[in-house]
Design goal:
S-adenosyl-L-methionine; Rossmann fold; tRNA (guanine(46)-N7)-methyltransferase activity; 8 helices; SAM-dependent_MTases_sf; binds S-adenosylmethionine; single chain; tRNA (guanine-N(7)-)-methyltransferase; alpha/beta; seven-stranded mixed beta sheet
C-alpha cells in the first residue's frame, strides 16, 4: 500500500479543521504491512463522517464484543502509553485516536509485539470519535503531551478548549478519570483553567509521574531538552 493521501488507509478527509500533521516520512515496508494487514480489524466502524453520515451512536460493546470498561487515549503518537496500558490492564478496553498515520503504523507494530487484543485504533481525529460515543461511556481518558501550539493566537487550537473538553465530559462517566501530561508550563496553565469548568475536579497536579506511567517519546524528548513535565489528574463530576 501507499502512504500517500490517496491511500485507502488515509484518515478521513477533514470535515473540520485539523492543524496537525497526517503524514510524515515514508513508511517502512514493515509499517505498510501493519497498516494493510492489521488496521482493518482494529479500526472501529462508524466513526468517520463517510462511514456514518447520520452520526448515529456507536456502542463500544459492539466495537470490543464485551462490556469491559472503556478507556480513551487522544493523540497516542507512537503508541507506547496505549500499548503499555492495554498490557497492564487486560480487563479494560482502550480506544486510541491519532491522525498521524506514521504514529498509527508505529502503534500497530507495538500491538503485534505485545500481543494485546483489548485495543481499538481510530486513525483520525478524537472529535470524530467523541461525536458518536454514547454519553458516560468512557471510564478513563488520557491526553499525553498534546500539541503545544505555543503562539498565543493558536492557543484556541489546543485540546484543552471547550470544543474538545465539552464532548469529552459528555462521553465520560461520572467519577471517571482524565489524565493530562505536558512539559509546557503554559499548556499546564490552560489545562488548570479550562478543564474544571468543563465538568471536572482536580485530583492531583504534580511533577511526580503516575505509578503506572510509562514515558512516551515526547516525554523523553522533553527530558533530554531540560523541560520537566507536570502530571494532572481530573475526576469527572
Ligand atoms: C506532541 S504529540 C504526543 C504524542 C504522544 N502522546 C507522546 O506523548 O509521545 C501529540 C499528538 O496528538 C495528535 N493529535 C493532535 N490533535 C489530535 C486530535 N484532535 N485527535 C487525536 N489526536 C490528535 C497529533 O497528531 C500528535 O501525534
Amino acid at each position: 500500500m501507499s502512504d500517500t493521501p490517496e491511500s485507502p488507509f488515509d484518515p478521513s478527509p477533514p470535515h473540520r479543521n485539523f492543524y496537525g500533521r497526517r503524514h510524515g516520512k515514508t513508511l517502512r515496508q514493515s509499517q505498510k504491512g501493519y497498516l494493510s494487514e492489521d488496521l482493518g480489524d482494529l479500526r472501529p466502524r462508524g466513526i468517520t463522517v463517510e462511514d456514518n453520515p447520520d452520526r448515529s451512536t456507536v456502542d463500544p460493546r459492539v466495537i470490543f464484543g464485551n462490556d469491559n470498561p472503556v478507556w480513551l487515549e487522544v493523540g497516542f503518537g507512537g503508541g507506547e502509553h496505549m500499548v503499555h496500558m492495554a498490557a497492564t490492564y487486560p480487563g479494560i478496553n482502550i480506544i486510541g485516536c491519532e491522525p498521524y498515520i506514521n504514529g498509527v503504523a508505529m502503534l500497530l507494530g507495538k500491538i503485534r509485539a505485545a500481543g494485546v487484543s483489548n485495543v481499538s485504533v481510530h486513525p483520525g481525529d478524537a472529535r470524530d470519535l467523541m461525536d458518536v460515543l454514547p454519553d458516560a461511556s468512557v471510564q478513563r481518558a488520557f491526553l499525553m503531551y498534546p500539541d503545544p501550539w505555543p503562539k498565543a493566537r493558536h492557543h484556541r487550537r489546543r485540546f484543552v478548549t471547550p470544543e474538545h473538553l465539552l464532548p469529552l465530559a459528555r462521553v465520560m462517566q461520572p467519577g471517571g478519570i482524565f489524565r493530562v501530561a505536558s512539559d509546557i508550563p503554559d499548556y499546564i496553565r490552560q489545562t488548570r483553567e479550562e478543564v474544571p469548568p468543563a465538568g471536572f475536579e482536580t485530583v492531583d497536579d504534580t511533577p511526580v509521574a503516575w505509578d503506572d506511567w510509562i514515558s512516551t517519546r515526547y516525554e523523553q524528548k522533553a527530558l533530554r531538552e531540560g523541560r520537566p513535565p507536570n502530571y494532572v489528574t481530573f475526576r469527572r463530576l
